[in-house]
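Sequence in, structure out.
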Amino acid sequence: MLEISNLALPLDAGLEGKQAEKLVRRAAARALNIPPNDITEIRLLKRSVDARKKHDVHFVATLGVELAGGVQAEAAAIEAAALRKGAANVKAHRPYEPLQVPQVGDSPQAQNEPRPIVVGTGPAGLFCALYLARAGLRPLVVERGAAVDERMAAVDAFNAGEPLDPHTNIQYGEGGAGTFSDGKLTTNIKSPWAQHVLHLFVEAGAPEEILWQAKPHIGTDLLVDIVRNIRKQIEQAGGEVRFNTQLTALHFENGHLTQAEITQPEPVTELVPASRVVLACGHSARDTFELVRDAGVRMEQKPFSVGVRIEHPQQLINRSQYGKAADHPALGAADYKLSMHLRPQKGEEQGRGVYTFCMCPGGEVVCAASEPEGVVVNGMSRFARDGQNANSALLVGVGPEDFDGEDPLAGIKLQRKMEQAAYRIAIAAGGEPYQAPAQTVGDFLAHQAGGPSKQVKPTYARGVAWCDLHECLPPFVARAMEQALPQLDRRLHGFADPQAVLTGVETRSSSPVRIVRGKNMQAQLAAASVSGCAQDEVLSTAQLAQAPASGGTQEQARAKTQAAPESSAASNRQPADVAALEPETGLYPCGEGAGYAGGIMSAACDGLRVASALVESLRLE
């Protein structure tokens, strides 16, 4: 099969029916300079929208093409294309090679130690557990929240005004926080695991189109079934999943993990033998971070971002992005991604990054609180993306210099302060518990509480209270947003429309901590907890294991506020003798909560990567 890339297609080629098929066939034939009838099969491999010129919005596709002349005809087509000057590129197609999981369940080492424990059923935990189960290791998976059906009921009840369930909500429960999101499957990392994640999603019931979309997404309505199916696959492969079960303690002896304490309701506490625990707890598991710190595990403060959700009419975004083509049925709801780096404010050594994140076309702002008397917002879309509003996080980067103290968990203190302030000012403005503070962009820039938008009806389910968001945002965050909004409007017309709605606060965009891990994917203990290893050795290994910060460009602002995944980290730069210094603690920090991912795709990739390292260690021992 040939692969033709960078092929321009008209928008009508994205419709259903024979006419669209003819358009695609003709474009492929022109690229190959052959008659259309010489093509026997066409497969869509990738497709994106090129809207750089509003008068010429079109698709750019990569196609897999088979010719009637077989291998010889395809070789000739590649040779001929190399001699022609054209926009499209032609080469031999390399098909996907399915993920191969080594079988280690019967290995002597696996037989002589307890089964591994995976903590958390977000993308990192689910994909890690699936790999371990298929390797024959029968993992025990514990999740503090409920299974997805019970979780949906709890979220619906909270949205309707019922009390907050601190254990099962938008942050906790089967599928993790990503279950209630846009379900984006894009990532800035270049990981060899990414293609496997997409195929495993399809295997679990995701639509096959995610394999060829340039910006694939699933949506909350489909994710619910998909995460349930992944759990069933884990169980069918020999794993065990326990819901409403929380990790409450870790016990180490001589620097190695020996037991994990897990607690179920009533409460019922169980000490489980454990020599390998994958910690994939997610970015909101604050009490889990505390127990990890108190167990003597090395942690460090990590930059992250805070801000608000901004809502616009989806039609405004469509027109801004697609111009006259906005209503074409092949396009659907438009998205956007904006970022910039501000000049330093007074008292700052360097400017802050401001950017949009987790943009949800046709979506809604969701009630994402997980602690009493705190308001947190996030965004989600359904697969159809057919809501009236578009929303996105509008975030400002924060770092250790903004935290109060050197405690690794100091960033959580900043998050919690904002969330509780948002709760209080909404109540003070006449709102009900867990209603969110909201303000139009025009009123925010004018520093006045104001009133409802004349164009945008907020989608936050519990309702909003109109007040001044400056009262719950740190001053430097509010100033950065004030600076950025007019400038971002120049990049996306209407972004700073005075009637756009800001809803606060968004504080959970990524983890505020990093649990330091080495090249062996295992956590490190404080020097006092490590037997037979000098303190300076532990420190040097910890420093080498940290992912380097990303660059300083506008588009990299998000990378600076979350852990750079280790695919681009020092894991590939450490000298061979460093690995010998790394302690075998048996604790594997994993995914977004541990500080090594930011979003569904990178978290799932990290889950597979950690599982592979764990399995490989059993093969080598």
